Prior knowledge:
Strand content: 15-25%
Oligomer: single chain
CATH class of the largest domain: Alpha Beta
Order of helices and strands: HHEHEHEHEEEHHEHEEEHHE
Largest sheet: 6 strands, mixed
Helix content: 40-55%
Amino acid sequence: MKPKTWLPLLLIGVFLISACAPINAPTTPAVQETISQAVQRTLTARPLTGVTLTVLAAASLTESFQELGTQFEATHPGVKVEFSLAGSQQLALQLGQGAPADVFASASNAYMKSAVDSGRVDPAAAKTFAHNRLVVIVPKANPAGIKEVKDLARPGIKLDLAAKEVPVGQYSLDFLDKADQDASLGVNFKAAVLNNAVSYEDNVKAVLVKVSLGEADGGIVYSSDVSAAAADKVIKIAIPDNLNVIATYPIAPIKDSKNAQLAQAFVDLVLSAQGQAVLGKYGFIPVK
């Protein structure tokens, strides 16, 4: 090969080796920031495709989380948020059996602890993101004439409650324990109320549906369950503050999530001011 042919090739090779070699000269903070910004732009410009984020969430979170899912998808092109909505006890059981998921949002600390105990959630990652209150609901026509908490113990009333394994079911029992100590509600109030229970459901939405259809004279749900749509079908009767029980909602990314960064991003959205505003709109008590 003639010198004039191989010399340019040699120079190109030297240039490439030099470009790949470490640079000993210090990089200024301004340059580092510029490089970081350029890398970030490159990463965010790379659209995701075919990514599904699976969120296991308590049934009472249906409407609020669906809106948050839509917001998340809008800011994460190519990501689809899919929800598995059920009683927290069912979701915790699924996690314990190895069901794939990315995020778990429970209506009770007890079932988040179950997820921690099964090794699916890091205890340090679980954060409280909302609270809720209990209310009594009756059908719009209110055929039994229930007007206050005391009426729940009246003989002949048909009540639909959540099972004790369901967070709202246990919260309801806690409320009845408090009410049982209130002399103004009568003797053996709790026993009388439970004697009127004709059905126990595996999630709070089932209670709402049965009462709204008139299949029961009344039931106990979360305040957030009485949405604008539900308000056309049921009447909400407040439970006094001294008897009420405040529900706590924790959320956490799943430790073995295949989409760890996205899972944490969804959790961050729920905890953000934006997420808290959505939860407040649907009747939850925000934590911020």
